């Protein structure tokens, strides 16, 4: 086969790979993307579509999330991609939940400067028709969260790369191996200057020794989706409850978190053992996305637990009221995760090659900003 030529090759057509392709193309590189599947079918389409800045670790990660949000809006403006600036509401139905939220607002000036604030129960219900008023004490409003529909957003970003920047996006193309400056694929050999390996859940095929030493494990999650809500009903702000305060890094160092954790472990041991926290978002056509659970292992069984799904729905009913909770879809997702406090795996296994993985469940939120940083550094 003939050898093709480009400046930058990206392995992986999920959000991490597409983000690196966009950053390289903006720099002026000739870019090719290789995705072995006929379309993106992994974690990048099996999520809430939440660009969730408020949950990210305070400081550099929060700023990276906000930069990613800006890029999502830039892409949406150019393509017509649905990207709704809904913001988010963290609902507090217990005093310890309100205490965590109040401490977060008081100690996070970067969030306050962008409009994050505490609301009374009455103000929260006025802002969200879905917020359950019974026992509601307070809520935290954050305006920075953005909602996209991942099943449409990922193909739209891929099409944008091809149309706006001339990126050669090759779905159904497997990378057999890399020996710089050559990338060997089922579509021939490519001579390149730079490769970004963004292979997501497949972290054994290319540079397996890097991943063996990385500490990566797979996270398995369970999610659900309702049908279209009746009468054009709109969720408004994306919602979550107290369990979410135990999931995201933004709240980890807060003093009030310990009391909340102790209560949740006593009252909801099944939820804590299965990594359940509950988020609620809506698609452009009115469906509600609900989840999720988190289990970490090198290899997972392929089966879903109805007990987990029931626990998710039961907890949701405690903080949200919905017109129609009938479930039309259930699925599992899998993504690589680092369990040692690192926020991503970025390694250069040989000159000209950068492996990018391990962004956990924050790929939609962080990838565009991370990609800009990685491309600028190389």
Descriptive report:
There is one protein chain. This protein is of the alpha/beta class and 378 residues long. The protein is built from 11 helices and 22 strands. The chain has helices at residues 15-26, 60-79, 95-107, 109-113, 121-127, 150-165, 208-212, 257-267, 269-273, 306-319, 363-376, and strands at residues 3-5, 8-11, 31-35, 50-51, 83-84, 88-92, 117-120, 138-142, 146-148, 168-171, 175-179, 182-185, 188-191, 194-197, 217-228, 238-240, 279-282, 287-291, 295-297, 327-337, 345-350, 353-357. Strands 6, 7, 8, 15, 16, 17, 18, 19 and 20 form a 9-stranded mixed sheet that branches. A 6-stranded mixed sheet has the order 10-3-2-14-22-21, with helices on one face. A 4-stranded mixed sheet has the order 1-13-12-11, with no helix packed on it. A hairpin with a 2-residue loop joins strand 11 and strand 12. Helix 1 (15-26) runs parallel beside helix 6 and helix 2 crosses helix 11 (363-376). The chain is globular. The two termini are 30 Å apart.
